[in-house]
Amino acid sequence: MSRRGWMLFALMSVLWGIPYLMIKVAVAGVSVPVLVFVRTAIGALVLLPLALPGGRLPELRRHWRPLAAFAAIEIIVPWWLLADAERQLSSSMTGLLLAVSPIIAVVVARLTGDAERLGATRSAGLAVGLAGVLILAAPGLRGGDVRSVVEVLLVATCYATAPLIVARRLTDVPGLPMTAVCLCLAALVYAPAAVATWPDAMPSGRVVAALAGLGIVCTATAFVVFFALIREVGTSRALVFTYVNPAVAVGAGVLLLGEPLSAPVVASFGLILGGSVLATARRRQFPSGGSTGPKAIPSVGSTSSSRPPRTTNATS
Prior knowledge:
- It is found in: Membrane.
- This is DMT family transporter.
- Belongs to the EamA transporter family.
- The chain crosses the membrane at residues 7-28, 34-52, 64-81, 93-112, 124-142, 148-166, 178-195, 207-230, 237-257, 263-281.
- The protein is mainly α and 316 residues long.
- It has one domain.
- The protein is built from 13 helices and no strands.
């Protein structure tokens, strides 16, 4: 990978590793609808001018059904669940729980028509990743945070499902205009609830900074960088950064919010990361020439190398 590719890779790992920290800060000062509305509105305002010059926005009208479904599953529903869950859960735990998205993606793809057999390695990865989730979620479940844990796992399921819509229904839709339209739609959906729950007084500077960071840095800038990374290294290699995001989320939570770094957190991170790598590994290919070199690449709903398989998470 080129030096530019490594720089973009490192930048993406940070840009989509710190939203959990900012959500944790912001949700303490504003309602969930306000948080999601501000984030999506800022992101749309920044990305729309970048998407307009290509003249591709009118083409999206014939894809309005899958676009609406993608916006709902990738942004509208999960971003509300994520913010609501972080009212109770730490940002580091949230980031780690979302690391199970690649594992869920394998299961969802299998249930919706993926003909590729899982095999022993990928099946073991699913089991290992699930063990990591159970270790991480157990304290929260015992402490009564069942709803919050379930919300984050639903977010992970959304992030695992949305790429299938892109791969099967939106392969010819350019990424930047699609993202801008989806953010606009999400902002419109949340506008009434945001107005109804708008704070009576200006939130603290810390909350305002977190909201601005979510919209400008973690949404608009992140998508621009992500598309650049896709162009530089291709979809499959670009998606490897999703394995680094949880570490960034944990580090940010521990260093900036004083969240605890316990042995179960470290153990669960290792299990979830290892399980994700195993579960998303491709089966070995044996060319006719006799070479047995394996091709192990992430398979998180990947599409063509010219555009991203999803807008988040990756979320986040």
